[in-house]
């Protein structure tokens, strides 16, 4: 272990390189690596899904013979198994490096210390730079969450007024937040594998829910709609723009002809029966996990938001606040449903951070405390719709 209190310059460069892969690596992690010899960086590399090669291999190829006897700084433990490429640990050994410094161990059960063991067995010194661990974990929080839980990281995102409202009771033309804040949301979408909403939001807004960041992705953003009766309009923007990237989740009570009509238009339909005619969100997340969608961004209405929060199916929240107040009892809150009837049953969050977005706007990022403030009287599985 190495913990000097400050991140070393080579590791800072490796982290910078890893960030260049954000949105381009899923379902793989974003990884950066540098080769240091004679006090100078001789090779740099980062991973993207399209380029196939892992960060270590790219950096070693750039370094060439300078890699022999060098130290390699990498943001994640080198892999030790055969995937689309050979094990990175083997590649480092073959290159003759003397030392590997990683920011963190890989929680993936297929690695999880095996890469380090293989290096040590080949007499390559191994160290973890603890000062960089937190930043490396944040860089790949969806990958790490998936590796540890087997489920995608679920983020509930909403744009709110200062009094916690997401919609007015009548006219909802216009935006709550500024163009700057909405551009920031596009970056968050870009780093997500899937985006989920309810049929109410689609019917009300005729939304596209696409990644409009203009940045390269490893695969299309999957758009998921909870729609128990398959009521989504066939002429909606979501349906007419579908190119294998729209999944509508219904129930067995939905008309068969509606399913057939959607499938004819390139929309995938999945049935997930929950209680009281609702779709089962847990089943949806399980299916997404099987397909290796590591992160899900929920951009929905009050009922869907509450279903995820109440059932503790959400892992974190991103609430964008604008300097506005709607007031009234009929304006929609960020989370609707039955709510909690006692303060003692409130849903708890921790690791809260406030990030400035633009003048007078900010975003609150926080993580649900699982097990605390759990659903009272059972788990809500989703809205009707």
Give the end-to-end Cα distance, rounded to a whole number of Å.
52 Å
Question: How helix-rich are the residues, as a percent range?
Answer: 25-40%
Unreliable runs: 376-385
Q: Give, in order, the helices and strands.
A: HEEHEHEHEHHEEHEHEHEHEHEHEEEE
The general outline is: globular
Q: Report the strand count.
A: 16
| Structural class determined from secondary elements | alpha/beta
- What proportion of the residues form beta strands (DSSP E)? 15-25%
- Average per-residue pLDDT, rounded, comes to 92
**How many whole angstroms does the radius of gyration measure?**
23 Å
Largest sheet: 9 strands, mixed
Number of distinct helices: 12
> Which strand order spans the largest sheet, edge to edge or round the barrel?
11-10-9-8-12-6-13-16-15
How does this structure look, described?
There is one protein chain. By secondary structure, the protein is of the alpha/beta class. The chain is 27% helix and 23% strand. The chain has helices spanning 9-19, 55-63, 88-95, 114-121, 133-139, 141-149, 179-190, 199-205, 237-240, 256-264, 281-290, 302-310; strands at residues 32-37, 40-46, 71-74, 99-102, 125-128, 153-161, 165-167, 194-198, 222-226, 246-250, 268-271, 295-298, 316-322, 332-333, 349-358, 361-368. The strands form 3 sheets. It has a 9-stranded mixed beta sheet, with helices on both faces. Strand 10, helix 10 and strand 11 form a beta-alpha-beta unit. Helix 3 runs parallel beside helix 4. The chain is globular. 45% of the residues are buried. Mean pLDDT is 92; it is low at 376-385.
């Amino acid at each position: 272990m190495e913990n000097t209190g400050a991140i070393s310059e080579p590791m800072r460069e490796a982290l910078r390189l890893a960030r260049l892969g954000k949105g381009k690596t899923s379902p793989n992690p974003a990884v950066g690596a540098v080769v240091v010899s004679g006090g100078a960086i001789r090779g740099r590399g980062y991973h993207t899904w399209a380029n196939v090669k892992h960060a270590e291999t790219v950096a070693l190829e750039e370094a060439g013979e300078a890699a022999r006897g060098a130290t390699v700084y990498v943001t994640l433990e080198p892999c030790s198994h055969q995937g689309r490429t050979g094990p990175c640990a083997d590649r480092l050994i073959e290159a003759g490096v003397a030392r590997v410094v990683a920011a963190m161990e890989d929680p993936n059960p297929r690695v999880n210390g095996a890469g380090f063991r293989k290096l040590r067995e080949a007499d390559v010194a191994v160290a973890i730079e603890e000062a960089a661990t937190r930043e490396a974990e944040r860089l790949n929080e969806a990958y790490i969450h998936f590796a540890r839980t087997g489920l995608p990281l679920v983020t509930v995102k909403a744009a709110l007024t200062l009094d916690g409202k997401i919609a007015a009771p009548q006219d909802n033309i216009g935006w709550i937040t500024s163009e700057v804040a909405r551009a920031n949301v596009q970056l968050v979408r870009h780093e997500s594998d899937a985006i989920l909403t309810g049929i109410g939001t689609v019917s009300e807004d005729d939304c596209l829910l696409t990644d409009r960041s203009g940045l390269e992705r490893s695969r299309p953003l999957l758009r998921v709609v909870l729609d128990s009766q398959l009521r989504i309009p066939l002429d909606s923007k979501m349906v007419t723009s579908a190119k294998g990237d729209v999944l509508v989740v219904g129930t067995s009570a939905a008309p068969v002809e509606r399913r057939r009509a959607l499938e004819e238009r390139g929309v995938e339909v999945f049935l997930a029966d929950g209680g009281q005619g609702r779709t089962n969100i847990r089943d949806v997340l399980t299916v997404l996990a099987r397909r290796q969608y590591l992160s899900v961004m929920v951009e929905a209405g009050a009922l869907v938001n509450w279903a995820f929060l109440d059932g503790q199916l959400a892992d974190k929240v991103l609430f964008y606040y604008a300097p506005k107040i709607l007031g009234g009892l009929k304006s929609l809150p960020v989370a609707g449903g039955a709510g909690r009837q006692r303060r003692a049953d409130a849903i708890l969050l921790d690791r809260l951070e406030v990030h400035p977005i633009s003048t007078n706007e900010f975003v609150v990022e926080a993580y649900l405390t699982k097990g605390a403030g759990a659903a009272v009287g059972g788990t809500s599985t989703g809205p009707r719709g």
